[in-house]
Amino acid sequence: MKELSRILVEFYDKMSSWENDMVRGTGLTLQQVHTIEVLGAHGDMKMKELAAKMGITTGTMTINIDKLEKTGYVERKPNEQDRRSTLVGLTSSGKELFEAHDDMHLLLTKEITSSMDEKERKDLIRLLEKLLEGF
């Protein structure tokens, strides 16, 4: 179990370092880029849903969205299904940033799994999905 823990920590540290390198120079924080990633992957959502997906409070998310709105990457939209709430979504600039960042994730994934065959990749997906269930 200790070896698994060590490897998971090392993998997290390397991914975190890579993410920080990708964000450096964009003028955005890592949390702001993650917000753009979540919205890009899942589409428009309520502030409460977005905060829950990111594991932060709605208050913290509101501050985050206020800053991202000023940069022109996100916008608040009326919720047609529930006029009492507002949806948050990416602008065209936000979508472009998401696509560019997502492409970098895909390139990294290809690089770090290049020594694996298709079965190993499928096994990795299955195991990572199982790990995610634990959160």
How would you explain this protein's 3D organization?
The chain has 135 residues and is mostly helical. It has a single domain, classed as Winged helix-like DNA-binding domain superfamily/Winged helix DNA-binding domain (Arc Repressor Mutant, subunit A). 70% of the residues lie in helices and 9% in strands. The protein has 6 helices and 3 strands; from the N terminus they run ααβααββαα. It has helices at residues 2-23, 30-42, 47-54, 58-71, 92-112, 118-133; strands at 45-46, 74-78, 86-90. Strands 1-3-2 form a 3-stranded antiparallel sheet. A hairpin with a 7-residue loop joins β2 and β3. α2 (30-42) packs across α5 and α3 packs across α4 (58-71). It starts with a helix and ends with a helix. 14% of the residues are buried. The mean pLDDT is 93.
